[in-house]
Amino acid sequence: MFFARCLRIASLCLACALAAAGCDDDSDTHSKSDPDHDREHDSADASASEDLDAAVADGADASPTKPTKPTKPGKYVLSVIVFGPEITNTYVTLVDSLDVKDLDLKQGIEFAGQANVAAYGGWLYISDGESPVITRYRLTDEDKLEQDGTVSFANYGEISVSVDDTVNTFISKTKAYLSASDGTTLVWNPEEMTITGDIPIEFKETKSLPEDMSLFGSSGFARGNRLYRTYFWFDWATYDFTEAQYFATYDTEKDQLISLVPETRCPALSALVAADEKGTAYFSNWFYNLAGTLQKGRPSACALRLKPGTDELDADWALEFPKIADGHEGAQLSYAKNDKALFAAFHQEEITIKDDDTPYDIVAGPHWEAWSLDLKTQEAKPIEGIDRMGAQQTVFTIEGRTFLFAPNQDFDLTKVYEVKADGTSSVAFEIEGWSRAFLKLR
Q1: Range of the domain at 77
Q2: Do 163 and 134 form a contact (C-beta atoms < 8 A)?
Q3: Partner residues linked to 83 by β-bridges
Q4: pLDDT band at 285 (very low <50, low <70, confident <90, very high)
């Protein structure tokens, strides 16, 4: 899959997933049984019965209020990649709270290689990254994950697929769009676990591109009966990308490509699309283009927006990272809440670029800084309390709380920060390995 991000450390490819699904149930606490407590309730029940009888005598509505059924506590999913000297494993683990403590990866489901996860409609979907198969899991009454169906994309010539948001977009419980390596959109049914069709796409540049160029682009963003995404071509060895870039719009009711519009204002729009509460979507770069900017003088990165009620990117709005971040290049715009966003700013003054530096050498070091941004005023500032990091920050907002995941340089430890509305942060928890998915399942 061209959006599957490769995930090899040597090539600095990354798949990030920003998803949250299910209902917003709060955890309930239950007191232990107490005889006096029970007797108080018995007495109260008797009194209520007498009041109800009196109300009936007076002709009032005697329909009793039905008791509220206790809700189950929330369930969340953490996905962690553990790199070993010879093998790599992914652990998908259930946790009971957003305040993670004493995480035991061995209690989760283990996959060989680098698996990707998504949660939607109360189900958990996992792609192992080494086959073109997506497996669905359900949460049992005992709060265990149980396999509940598979769907294979092998007939479309795919050797692997990814179900996370970089590649797959859920439209409804019965429809999802998954991008194939040639840009074809594969339409599948997450409820029936079947493939129902495909949406072809054609690019005039395909025949003239170098063989090392692969089709690439942003995640999909679904709104109403539309899905939007970007496309361009990218070289994983050199981090070069084409100036040619397209903004695609799909009709998700008719399963058709509506338009394919050239867009060259902001290069390499390949990050996960960020969307606010009103439906405004923001398209930005990941970090790959930074090497070309610093080493070859290519254009700086920026972000564009798609306002509600339109199928066209806003022609009068662009977020230029160097202008808002004291001259620093930027990447990875993520949305938090209440018009507040986050992005990563690069301290290029801390490095000296040599002629023989690879793109990895330029962007891999711990010279990235987490910044907060007010989207209304475009005022930005560094987030207090977060250490310098590599180019791998991922952001998840769940139940109104925003978490920033930052792996260390060896990818054997992920530090998770909770970012507050005032632009400060604190360490929420740490995870051994590289964690890049934090989802709400129930």
Answers
A1: 1-26+71-197
A2: yes
A3: 88
A4: very high
